[in-house]
Structures are given as C-alpha cells and as structure tokens.
Amino acid sequence: xxxxxxxxxxxxxxxxxxxxxxxxxxxxxxxxxxxxxxxxxxxxxxxxxxxxxxxxxxxxxxxxxxxxxxxxxxxxxxxxxxxxxxxxxxxxxxxxxxxxxxxxxxxxxxxxxxxxxxxxxxxxxxxxxxxxxxxxxxxxxxxxxxxxxxxxxxxxxxxxxxxxxxxxxxxxxxxxxxxxxxxxxxxxxxxxxxxxxxxxxxxxxxxxxxxxxxxxxxxxxxxxxxxxxxxxxxxxxxxxxxxxxxxxxxxxxxxxxxxxxxxxxxxxxxxxxxxxxxxxxxxxxxxxxxxxxxxxxxxxxxxxxxxxxxxxxxxxxxxxxxxxxxxxxxxxxxxxxxxxxxxxxxxxxxxxxxxxxxxxxxxxxxxxxxxxxxxxxxxxxxxxxxxxxxxxxxxxxxxxxxxxxxxxxxxxxxxxxxxxxxxxxxxxxxxxxxxxxxxxxxxxxxxxxxxxxxxxxxxxxxxxxxxxxxxxxxxxxxxxxxxxxxxxxxxxxxxxxxxxxxxxxxxxxxxxxxxxxxxxxxxxxxxxxxxxxxxxxxxxxxxxxxxxxxxxxxxxxxxxxxxxxxxxxxxxxxxxxxxxxxxxxxxxxxxxxxxxxxxxxxxxxxxxxxxxxxxxxxxxxxxxxxxxxxxxxxxxxxxxxxxxxxxxxxxxxxxxxxxxxxxxxxxxxxxxxxxxxxxxxxxxxxxxxxxxxxxxxxx
Length: 699
Prior knowledge:
The chain is of the alpha+beta class. The protein is built from 25 helices and twelve strands. The protein has a domain at 466-697: PPM-type phosphatase domain (Phosphatase 2c, domain 1, 4-Layer Sandwich), CATH 3.60.40.10. Helix content is 64%, strand content 10%. Helix 9 runs antiparallel to helix 10 (194-210). The chain is globular, with a radius of gyration of 32 Å. The model is unreliable at 9-20, 353-375, 387-391 and 556-562 (pLDDT under 50).
C-alpha cells in the first residue's frame, strides 16, 4: 500500500502537553519525593511534549531549569545532558551533539559504567540513522545492546531490542524487525510495562504486514489497541488505528479501512496535531478514491489542505495538489485537475536543490516531457493567433496537455515493461526447471523433517512417565498437558523413594523442537539427582540440576552461549506424614484447603539460564496438608493464553478461582473441566505456549 501513510513509533508516547499548564505541572512537583523523579517528571511532562511540537528553544529552557534539582547528583546530570543531546539531534545539530557525546563517553569509560556507555552508543546510532547511514547506525545499536545487557536492566535491554527492530525495519529486514520487537515485548510484559508494550505491538503489526503475515499483524495491532485503551494512551491508540488502516487496505477491505482511518482522525483533531491529521485525511482521500467515491475523496483532500495550513510546514502542501489533481481528473473536471497538477510541479520545483533539479530534468527526458512542452507551446501559439479566450478552450487545452503527459508516461512504461517481459521470457524455461528441481528437494526435505518431528514426539512421549505408572504412584491426581506444537517444552515428572513421592511441573525455554530437546536433558538430570545421587530435598535436587545443566550447556552472558533453562516447581510428599517439601524456580504452587487457596512462591530465578560465575542456591519451604486438600503445579501457558471476547490474557486471578472451584469434583472431572475452560477461552485464537497443569488430591 504505497499511498497510505502508516505510523511507526520509535520512542514512548507521552500524554498531551497542552492538557496542562506549566504552573500546574510545577505545582505537582511538590508531591514528588526525590530530585531524580522530579527531573524525570519535568522531562516527561514538559520537555518531551515541547520537543514533539518542535518548540526546541522552549524545551531547552525548561530542561536547563531542571538543573536546580541536580544537587551534586551525577546521575541526574547525566540524564539532563543526554536529553539535551536528544534535542540537538532533533534539530539536526549533529556536530554539536557528537562533541557532547564524546565528553560523556569519555567520563563513562573512566567510570567503567556500562549503562552510560550504552546510552552514548545509542545516541550515536540515532545520529547515523538521521544521516541515512544505516550500516553504521546498526553497528552502534548492537554495541549499545551489549552494554545494556551488562547492566541487567530489563527496561534498557528492551529499549535496545526495540532500537534494533527499528533499524532492521529501515533496512527492510522485516522478519528480523519483528523478532526483536517480540523480544522487547516479552521483557516489557515480564516487567509489567503495559504502556511500552502497546506502543511496540503497534510497530510489530507493521513488520508483520510488510512480510505478509496479515493474521499476526491483526493480532498484534488489536492487542496494541486494547492495551492503549486500557491504559488511556490516546496517541498510541491513534497510531494503532492508522496502522490498522494500512492492514485493511492491504486486505482490500476499504470500508473497514475508512472506519479505522476516521477514528485516528478524531484523535489528531482533538489534540490539534495538524500534520498527522493532514496525513490521515490524505489516507482517507486515497481510500475513497480506490473505492471510486470521488466526491468523498475530494472532501477528504480539502480537509487535508485545511489541516496542513494550520501548521508551520505549509511547504508540505505540495503532495496534496497531486492527489487533488488525480481526484479531479477522475471526476472529469479537467481544467482544475490541470491547474492543481501545475501547482504541484511548480511547488515541488521550488523546494528542490540544484542537484535535484538536474535529476528532474533527466526524468523529464526519460518520460518524454519535452514533447509535452512542445505541444503546450504549439497550443499556446494557436491560442494567441486565434485570440480565443473562452473558458471552454482553456479546459480543452488543459485536457490535451494532461492527456499528452499520461500518454508519454504510459509509452515509456510500456516500452520498459516489454523489455522486461522479453528478458523474463528468455529465461523462463531455465528458471522453471530450477524451480521444479528445488520444489522436489524442498518436498523431500519437508517430508524428512516431518517424519523426524513425529519420531521425536514418540521419543518424548516414551521418556515421559506413562499414565498407568503415574496413576499407580498418585491415583488421586490428574495431568493436563496441551503442547503448542507437535513437540513440547513443558514436561511432567514423577519418582518415588522409600520415604518420598516426588512430582514436578517444568517449563523449558521455548516450545516445539528447541523446547523438547531441553526438556529431555532436564528430565534426565532430575532422574540422575534422585536415582543416582540419592538427593532428598527439592532444593538440593534443583541445585544439582542447576549446576549440571550450566556445565553441560556452558552458559554465560556471552552472545555465543546457549541460554536455555527451566522454570520448575518440585514437591516431595512424605509417605508417612502430612509434610510436603517444596522448591521452585520462577514458578509457584497453589494449595486449596476447605475452599481457601494459598500461593507458595518459588525463587525468582530459573534453573540453568543466564548463569555466570556465581550460582544461586534454591531455597526450600515446608508445609503440612490434610486429607481432602489439593495441590496444583503448573506452567505459565494457561494463564498467558489470549482469548475470550476481548482477546486478552486469561491471567492468574481467574486461574486461581477456577482451580478453587473444581476441588470438590472427582479427579477425572477436574481434568476435563480445566481442559474445557482452556479451549473455551482460547476459542479461535492461536495457542501461545505449551500448557501444563498437575492436580493432586491428598487422600
């Protein structure tokens, strides 16, 4: 969709500046407890909105006013300095910005501060992006990511992922852009940063559109819209509507596209963002014209003119004249169409440099526009000779001139297309042979891969404890295991010794083939800990598995290291008492007694993943149970599933309520009820992760 403008947001969108006055904002500073938060508040509520409205002088003044809160705090000084550099970059004062970055970078190197070094690299990347040097910008962004990873600050790592996604998008590597935006969203969701997630999802939707996955694009954009509404992020909501317009246009669903476009226009009109409003109205004109609603299209383009005239960038009006000329031509109103075309050409010519003018002259030769000039000169001479001044003749002249241009361009395109067609035809037979050969190879490979995955599934199923063994050890229990793909990264494990029955619910990194491979490794390590090393407590078992997995996969923070681990809950039920031992990695368990649910939390780090030199030890908790009590172990797949009438996550509170409600049912009914609940919630949505729930009733 070349003519429909879309919205790609690179930074967080903040609330409307014009909704509050300066004095009201400064008054609210009195309630903020420390200087650092005050400076962040001033930047977010005053400086950023001023920058967005291109009032850079006022933005700098307000930023310097924030220096009163420095009070010797070096971190606040760094924050103000970096924001000032961002203002310089926005004004394209790149030399001054580079000099200030160099000073900050030198100080950061002396302090060996990875956060500051990463931020300096990010600013250098932004400058190269403005200059159009995508290769150098990409290099700096990846270096910034490396530094931010050293800080272990999820928010900065997420921001770096988003930066790399943006530069990948500019490089037209849309699949890579989507992958990095997905990583950014994953970190933000873990941190509960819904305001950032909504923005990133809107960008992710664009990437999906560009590489043709319209289903994922719609899911991402609808999620973005839902979160934006939930968090009252009006600007992100408008961005999502604009991008949904592009999606529906791509799907040729013009009626729905116009509906979304009008919703975006409502927002930009309400906050008086006239430049964006003009773009949206221009989109509406193109949509109406595509649907042959020419009078509606003309109304939209007139609104686009009116909106653009409210801005200081009236020079940006000239593309609208070309759009209006096309609409008037469709309406067979040829004289105004020709007049608007001439205005477009004249205004465009006045804006280009001498080099651009040279290129335009070359294009005119290619498109035989010299013939149009000769024809116009001849027609003008005839007009002078015959002294015809009637409006009908002027319309005729305009129409002829426009037709000449169209014919000239058409002739050029036809010649060019014929040449391409001839070249393609000459190579077609050879390419067809290659394609057929490749098709056969791909089909053979696909068949081999499919057979291998099916065989791997049989291996994984053979490794997991069979249900007859499970029911023999724990007759009053159920397993709900719903893999996302053929293979699963979630697995269940049971073993018993003379004194204890051990049960685990594990979620390995990823799903499908990668998750299944790691699950097999971890399953065997659990067996080794209990059956070979005779370890007793869950914390000892997880400590041992943590060490063995780390050593076997050589995990470090380095980029080349394997970063696969496991979230797990592990319990040991004493056979001769009411005592239960528990240890967990990133996961909790629930116990239900007399209708009351209690959550027992595990440690907030995984088994194996992202381990450096210092290995953390797992803690163990003890609790007692009575006959009739229930214990539930689970992975995050059930609560994280999108579905329901609004396409939102199921979440943990409804999950807890559902588990509490089924404890009075028999075991088989509990399993059936949980499965039906999941399927009903998921509906037509794609399953997002493997699902595992284990229920145990104490008998």
